[in-house]
Amino acid sequence: MRRRTGEEQMMQIFDGHNDALSRLWGTCTDPVSEFAKPVGHVNIPQARTGGLQGGFFALYSADAKGAFDFSIFDGGAPALPLPPAMPAAQALEPVVAQAGIAQHLQAAGQIEICTSSAQLGRAFISDPIACVLHLEGADCIGPELWDLDALYAMGVRSLGPVWSRPTIFGEGVPFAHGRDGDTGGGLTEAGHALVAKCKALGIMVDTSHLTLKGFWDVADAGLPLVATHSNACAVTLNTRNLTDDQLRAVGQSGGMVGLNFASLFLSDEGWAQGYATLEDCLRQLDHMIAVAGEDHVGLGSDFDGAPMPRGLANAGDLPALVDAMRTHGCGEALIAKLAHENWLDFLSGQLA
């Protein structure tokens, strides 16, 4: 392997989505000790190896403790059935527990929960991993939205109204190949109220997992359009990816889309056979940049929440993606935008 030149020192990364807190909640009793080991996709040693300095850490309402079973994506079926709606009380327990795990990681100096742009800017260049807490699916929030106030007080600054399964706020897309996200209804009346309150509080609304109609409902609310971990339908036609009209709207609204590393959303082979490569990542990036604009594209790995492509097994392999960008002809200025600058610039206008 050739030696890096001075301008090719390790690129710092801000990641649009990981499920490390869900993994820790589901698989261990000592999250601080576990996060210090090279276990899973995101942890302290692999973050240091890969230059991962910050990102959105998801709080997710799993229906039971345990490791995520990526084998459910094996076989390349046209679609996977969605689980039913989850009662709010059941959904709240894992979310609060995962927020508590984040507090323990922060107390141990492993992450810093960031709630302002100034804090994020400082944390991103410090030793602890800068963490923006994200609620992936608002299953745990009741119609009065009181739970949202509590989550805001816990540090949540980003929210997706759904994680694919339906909530009282809207419908999510099933995991399906060969079609786009026009699979159901948009935001409900409660969903519109949720988005309005997020706007008032300064909570970013993530359209990943929302139906196409739900996406346009968020657009009508006048918010910057964000899809933290989604790819392009024009490259790989999948319900979890965005159409060109959606990508254009992301750019025109001043929003962001994060490249999802999950093999099943990167390519047809990734869905059918679980096999995807760094070249598939680059094909997605090329298209997303061409349509949304180079100032509106970043990374959104889905680490710890999905099977990864060859050559990108965990956060420690992030330099391989950066090197692939260089080999592909991306200049250092563009790579820096994709790696961290675009997300940080966007969040500087979102966080108080």
General description of the model:
The protein has 352 residues and is an alpha/beta fold. The chain has a single domain, classed as Metal-dependent hydrolases (TIM Barrel, Alpha-Beta Barrel). Helices cover 40% and strands 13% of the residues. The chain has helices at residues 20-27, 31-35, 44-50, 88-107, 117-124, 146-154, 189-201, 212-220, 244-252, 263-266, 268-273, 278-292, 318-328, 332-348; strands spanning 13-18, 52-60, 79-80, 111-113, 129-136, 156-160, 175-176, 204-205, 226-227, 256-259, 297-299. Helix 5 (117-124) links the parallel strand 4 (111-113) and strand 5 (129-136). Helix 1 (20-27) crosses helix 4.
Topology:
Elements: E1 13-18, H1 20-27, H2 31-35, H3 44-50, E2 52-60, E3 79-80, H4 88-107, E4 111-113, H5 117-124, E5 129-136, H6 146-154, E6 156-160, E7 175-176, H7 189-201, E8 204-205, H8 212-220, E9 226-227, H9 244-252, E10 256-259, H10 263-266, H11 268-273, H12 278-292, E11 297-299, H13 318-328, H14 332-348
What's this entry about, in short?
By secondary structure, this protein is an alpha/beta fold. Helix content is 40%, strand content 13%.
Question: What structural category do the secondary elements indicate?
Answer: alpha/beta
Q: Architecture, according to CATH?
A: Alpha-Beta Barrel
Number of strands: 11
Q: Quickly count the helices.
A: 14
Any idea what the CATH superfamily is called?
Metal-dependent hydrolases
Percent strand equals 5-15%
How far apart are the termini?
A: 44 Å
